Each structure stands twice: as C-alpha cells, then as structure tokens.
Amino acid sequence: MPSSSNNPNPLLQVNHFSRFFHCWLSPLMTKSRKQGTLHLDDLYGVPDYLKSTLLTNKLEENWLDEIKRCPRNPNLIRATLRTMGWKLILLGLLLISLVAPLQIIAVVFLLWHFVNYVTFIAIGYMLLLVLIQPLFSRLFLYLRTEVLKIIDERVKIISEIIKSMRIVKMYCWESAFKRKIRHVRTREMIKTTIFRMCTCIEMILSQNYVSITFLMMYGTMWLFDMKFDTRVFTLSYVLLSYTHQSCVNYFNFAIRDLLNYVVAQKRIRIFLLFDESERDIRLLSTSFNNIVEIDKIDENLVKQTSEVICNLKQAQWEKNEKFSLKNIIFDAHPGDLICIIGPVGFGKSSLLQTLTGEITYFDGKIRLYGSFCYVPQESWIFSSSVKNNILFGKKYNSKLFQRVARATALDTDFVQLSHGENILVGDQGVMLSGGPKARVNMARALYRDADIYLLDDPLSAVDAKICILVTHQIQFLQDATKIIVLDNDEMAQMGTYKELLIPSPSFAQLLEDINQHEQEQQQQPVSLLNQQSMIDSINSEKDRTVKWNVYVLYLRSGVGVILGFLLIIIIFTTQQSIAIFSNWWLAAWSNDESRRHYENSINCMTVQDKKIDRLYRMNDIESSTYRYRRFYIFCVLVFILCFLIFLRTVISQLICLNAGRVLHNKMFKQIIRCPISFFDTNSVGRILNRFTSDIAAMDESLPMTVFDFLVSLSQVLDTIVLVIFLNPWSFIPAIIAASGMLFVRYRFAPCSRDLKRLVGTTRKEFHYHLDNNTRVNYLIATLNRWSAMRFDWVSIIFIALIIVLAIIVRISQQQFSAVEIALTLTYSLNLMGLFQWTIRQSVEVETQMTSVERILEYCSLEQEPSNQLSFKYRSPANWPSQGRIIGRTGAGKSSFIQILFRMGTLVDGHIIINNIDIVTIELDDIRRRISIIPQDPVLFTGTMRSNLDPFGLYSDAEI
C-alpha cells in the first residue's frame, strides 16, 4: 500500500547553512513541543533518493546482473554497494573501522616521544581487548540463542492461553498455567542472568582500560626507574581515553555490526536464491494482456473470454509427499458456479490453491484465462479503515463501492458503526466479529471486479463471472451449474445437483453428513465488539512523559525504593570517587617524580613547598621506599576500582532483571484473572505485545540503558564537583554548560521520543509502509546529529572557559598546582562526550520506560471476583444435579452458557441452580462443578497428559 507525506522534505530547499547545521528540523521540534506528540502526517517526506521503489528497482537490477556475472556464487554485498554507492563504505559503518587504526598510529607517535617502548604496553592491552571480542561475541551469540529459544516457548504458551482464555476459565486452569509460565520464565531469567554476568566480565575489562593501562605503564616505568612527570600523565590520560572510546568501544561496535550485517546478508542471499514460485501475475491485473498459463504451454490463439480448464492428474506441495490431489477434470465458463464439496480434510482448499499456483502440479494441465481473486477460509483484515480494507490499494470508485457494500450487506454494518466505512479496524481500532469480518473480505474480492472467483466461503450468485466455491453450505448446491465431489484427495463425482442426487445414494448420504455437521456448529451472531473501547485504548497509548511513580514502582519491583536508591547512590558515587582519587594519586605521583628529577624547577622554599623540599632532600633508600608506597597504593586503588565496577554492574543488572521478573509475573497473574470482556475488546496481538516487545525492552534494552545513564551521570556530576573543588571559579562555566545542555534536551527530547514511538508503529506495518519507516529513521538520525552538534558547542564553550579560568587563577595565585591544572584539563576534555551521551541516554531511558508504564497499566487491570472473598454458600458435594439447555441454532445457548459460567455481568435477575444462586458461590467452585465440551476444540502445546490433567492429579491408569 503506498504511503505518501503531504509535508515535503525541506532539506532540498534550504540554504547551505541550514543544511549543514540541521536548522531545518527546528519547525518539527517546535510542533512536537506545542502539540504534545507527533503523528505520522506531521513528519517530512522521505528524500527521493531514499524511496523504497527506487532503491528496490536498483537493487533488483544489480542483483540480476550479479547473478548473470557469477551464477554459481552471486555476492549480495557487491550488489548492495552498487545500489547504495561506495559512500556507504566511506561515510558509513567502515568509517569507524578506518579511523581506529589511524588513531592507534597517532597515539603511538605521540606517546613514543615521552615513554618510548612503554607505549606498546598500552597498545598491546588495547589490541588484546579487540582480539578477545570475537570470543565474547561467540559466547554471547550462544547464550542469546538459548535465551531466544525459551522466549519463543514462553510467548507460544502465552499466545495459546490468550487465544483459548474461555476454555482456561471454564476449566479453572488459571493456576496451572500460572505455574507453567512461572517455570518457563524462571528458566529464561536464569539464562538471561548468566548472559548478563558474562557481559559484566567484558565490561570490567573494557571500562577499566585506562586504569589497568596506567597500572602497567607506570609499573614498568617505576620498575626500570624511567622518568615520568605531569606531562606524561596528562597526555597519556587524554590519549588513552580517546583510544578507549574509538578503538575499544566504537571499533568493537563496528566489528559487531559488520559481522551482524554479514550474517544477515547471507540469510537474505539464501532466500533470494530460492527458486521462484510459479505465480499467476493476473492476480494483480484484470487485463487479458498478461495471460499466463501455469503449465507454460504455448497457445497460438489467446482467448478473450474468461475460462477455467482443469485437467489435473497429480498435484502436491513437494514431490514424494504422502498427500496429493489427483484425477480432477472440469472446465468453467462465464456465469458458472462450480461448487466443490467433500468431507473435511479431503483436498477442497488444496484444489483452489493448486488453481492459484500455490501447490505445484506435476502431471496434467491447468489454464486460467482472465483475472482471478482468491478468498481464503480465514477472514483477515489489516489495521486501517474498513474502506481501505476493501479498496486494498485500488482507486476509489463511489458507485462500485456502494454496489459492493449492498451486495455483501455491509451497508447495514456501516449504519451501526460510529464512523461508517471510515471506522478504524484491526489491532489499532474496532474489533470486528466473524460476520462483519467475513463480509469485508467478500467486499474486498468483489471490488477487484475479477473474472474468476475462487472462494472458500459461501457467496451469493455472481452474474457473468466464473465462481469456484468450496462450501459446506448445501443450500447453494442447487444453484450450482456443476458440483465436484472430492473423496480421498481425488474427484469422485461431477455433475449438477439433480444428476448426482438421483443415481447416487453416496451423494445423498454426504449431504446428510454435511448438514448434520453444520447444525452442530454455533452460528456466530452479527455483532461489532466494543467499538469505543478500542478507540479509547488508542488514545490511552498516546505517548507522553513518563511519570515519576513509574520509576518508583519499577525500583520497588527490583529491590525496594529506599534500598535500591541507597545502593545506586552509594555504589556509583563510591566507584566514581575511587576512580577520581586514583587519577589524582597518579597525577600527584607524576608531579612528585617531576620535582625529584628536575631540581632546577625548585626556585624558592615557601610554606607550600615543604613537601617538595622533603622530596628533594630524600636519599636513595627513602626515595625508593616512597615510590614503592606510591605504586602499591595505586595497585590497591585499581583493584578496589575493578571490584566496585564489577559490583556496580552486577547489582544494577540484577535489580533490573528482578524488576522484569516481578512485573512479568504480576502482569500475567492480572491478565489471567481478567474478565473475559477484556479479551473480547482487546486483540490477541495487542495483549501479546506486552509480553513480547515490552518485556523484551524491559529485559534487554532497559538494563543497559539505565546502567549507561547512571554511569555517565555519576561521571558528569563527579567531574563537575572535582573541577569546582580545584577551581571554585569553574562553578560559573558549569552552570552555563548545564543550562545549555538542558535547553538542548528541552528542544529535542520530545521530538526524539515521538519519532522513536513512530518507529515502532511503522515497523509493525513494515511490509507496506517501508517509506514511512524510512522517513522516521531518517529524521531520528538527523535529529541525533542536530543534538550532537549543539552538545559539542556547549562542551567546547565549557572547556574554553575552564582553560581560561585555570590560566587566570594560575597567574594570580601560585597555589593552583600543576597537578590540579592537569586534572582540571583532562576531566574537562572528557566532558565533551560525556555531556551529550548522558543527555541522550536520559531521553532513551524515558523512551524505554514507556514499556514499563504499559506493563504497569496491565498490572492494575480489573479482576474477576477473588476466591479469597467470603461467600454465602458452599456448594454441596452433589451440586448441581440436573438441568438442560435446549434451543435452535442461533437462539443464544452459547451466550447463556457464558453467563452460567459467570463470564459476563448479570445486569438484572438471578440464575438459580438447585435452589442456589450462582452469584453466592465461589467463582472457581461453580466453574469446576459444570463440565463443558466447547464448540472449538483446543490443544495446548505439550503432552496429551498435560492437556487432560494440567494439575497432575490423576495417575496414568485413571486417565
């Protein structure tokens, strides 16, 4: 389905200044702030060079050329590069991979001038981290695969429970399934915890890169009595910090993404190399110009009238399969109604799929002249208006649309709907019951005005068309021009109704069996399920700022509000304080070494120079003891730092994982005790979304995002405190920088949050809204560049002011030592990246906390009456002992059974069974006392025993 935007992208119209600094995004951010949220119609259109149609055509052309050039081993990467251009390599993923080696060369060149061969210790440890990354990646891949298997198992069970919730409630199986889901979830959390602990080990090696490298470098220089001073510390700290970011973190990300791309392209390549299915392209056209014969037989004369000719000898999904269609011969002409009947599972639907080309036939001949339309047994709709569901991409014709609506009786449904044909349906709108949904599917087929209709459902007569109908509705058979009877996957009889009825007692018996089967099926009354509730749910999902109580409830679920808050503050503050103190200790040691080696730097002895004088007067033994003590204390500090980083990482991960476990179990407990009306007014997909994407965000993305935010925030706050402590005048630029950062966040955060919400929305409909998803992602990437550029400006201003103030203080006051200047400069330079990363992660945390907010909403759903409540009566052992429900089809027997099981609310009146009002009895008690065999059979994944006795109360012999 094509999608377009009424807002042209201003990128191609603005001047170079606006394009370079991304100023053209300002109106979009202003609109997001004023409206409170952005909608898809508010976004700018995708640039022409990124439109899916253009890129798809180019990729298809390049892929076909690649197949011609290398038919045995075509390369999808090469075809993709030709499609996107080589700028994908120069400006995209490989840019980081190219910059990292260049930075290593620059670091070696600069450090060599000061520490000679000790430089290779730092580079060697960095290369070691890079080389062991593939080992961690393989381990993570294995653990992640194991976790995904358990997640699939859990989601499958939950999906089955939600789809069969009536059976679960009628049989009182809630507690059994709660225990089953809790067991699966426990296995999942154990695997996830192991995965997180391995991640913690990798993070320790990575985050301690600077400290461990300093320990090895200074240990080597101390061991060999090499000269080092404050200049070595300052330069080494700055270079190692940048090397850590670009060569350890970013380079690993680049390699990981590159490997993921290689794996993904291999899977796509395998899919593209599959044999093309022989599909009839007339599905997309009503023209006779594109007639294609499935059997590829050339014809000298192409017929200009619609016709179906079937001479099928054998057809099956794959060769050597047990199931096959055979010996089916018929033809159909305009005006014919061909009815296909037979017992269940004898190939009626498979015959229609053979006619459409879905099932391959290996012997015989099939010809279809004219366009055709296939209507499957299962009615389906997509999330859009009823009108769009019927049009299905075709142009709107008012007269044809009204004719189709009248023919399918949708005109009466439109009167009942609040917005008529424009009502929103599907997972994001009104829930249609079976009747209206089937009529929408029929209307979709009729609106295409095809020449041939292949129907797996009853349909009234279609004049001047060919209609091939699979049916159990015997009332249509008398109007059929031809009836085909299938038995054991082959045609047993063919003829008109009268021709088959008189000489064939087997045909009469088949009609009687079909009629009996249909009478046993409860006809679903025409209804529209709770129009307003779904529209309200859409409005309730409108994105908004996450409230503070969501964070409080999340922390309470993890470990408790007070304990969690104290743990986070104490551990993160202590770790960062130790990190700063270890660097100060190293800087002070470097300053002492510079004083010890360079005697001419001591010009006078004042009160503040007593320590320098003491160092200068030390003999060799005292000096050696002093250096020993400096080094050993630094070793202890690094060890404590590593332990605190591990403790910080583990505790934060465990808090988040435990919160995910508690909230998942609580949500499932609430869901399974909800009234059945909740499941009638909310689609399975909507409910499952809480247990899939929202739980995934809470288990996988949120813990790492929260951890990154807390680490960055603690670093920023401690750095600002340190800089202000060393130079109180730095408080002024700190206030200026903080104000600038918060203003930038104020501008871009709401827009970024809305765009990320729209990414999820458009990804759900990815297959026919590709351009919508592309333009949202394009705006997110551009908005990130807008914010990063402005964060850098604020950081540069802050660093410039810090340097100017440091120079002024140094000139005016001699007590501002070289150590303090070194620490001020090194930590201030780190703030450039930390500032924007902290702000960006704060927005990301807020965005991902919306998943927690939605889960908490489901944790407070309305519940059925609790079994813990005191009821007036306890049902006798033999209650109930008698009672019958009799009525014609459609009279309301099933609806009454719903009330009998207290699935619905009894507005007025009483239901008394054997002199006991059912309202006065426990809910589970009354449901256990009444047995029911449902209309729709249900099997849950597992053994036959688990389906018969989920509580495990009976032995095999009793079962």
What are the key terms here?
Rossmann fold, elongated, six-stranded mixed sheet, 31 helices, 959 residues, alpha/beta, three-stranded antiparallel sheet, 3 domains, 61% helix
| End-to-end C-alpha gap | 53 Å
Low-confidence stretches: 279-302, 458-464, 518-543, 599-608
Query: Averaging pLDDT over every residue, what do you get?
Result: 76
Largest sheet: 6 strands, mixed
Helix content: 55-70%
Name the beta content range: 5-15%
> From the alpha-carbon coordinates, what is the Rg to the nearest angstrom?
36 Å
Number of spatially distinct domains: 3
- Indicate the overall shape: elongated
Counting DSSP H or I runs of 4 or more residues, the number of helices is 31
What does this protein look like?
It is a single chain. With 959 residues, this protein is α/β, with parallel strands linked by helices. It has three domains: 92-270 and 545-727 and 816-858, no CATH class; 282-414 and 424-529, Rossmann fold, CATH 3.40.50; 869-959, 3-Layer(aba) Sandwich (Rossmann fold), CATH 3.40.50. 61% of the residues lie in helices and 7% in strands. It is elongated, with a radius of gyration of 36 Å.
Put the structure in a nutshell.
The protein is α/β, with parallel strands linked by helices and 959 residues long. Helix content is 61%, strand content 7%.
Protein topology:
Elements lengths: L15 H6 L4 H10 L16 H18 L6 H9 L2 H5 L1 H23 L3 H45 L1 H6 L3 H34 L1 H15 L6 H43 L34 E9 L9 E8 L4 E5 L6 H8 L5 E9 L2 E4 L8 E2 H6 L6 H10 L2 H7 L7 E2 L5 E2 L1 H14 L4 E4 L10 E5 L11 E6 L2 E6 L1 H5 L3 H16 L7 E2 L1 H10 L7 H11 L2 H37 L12 H7 L3 H53 L3 H6 L2 H43 L4 H34 L5 H43 L5 H41 L34 H8 L11 E2 L2 E2 L5 H7 L14 H5 L11
Parallel strand pairs: 3-10, 3-11, 5-9, 9-10
Antiparallel strand pairs: 1-2, 1-4, 6-7, 8-13, 11-12, 14-15
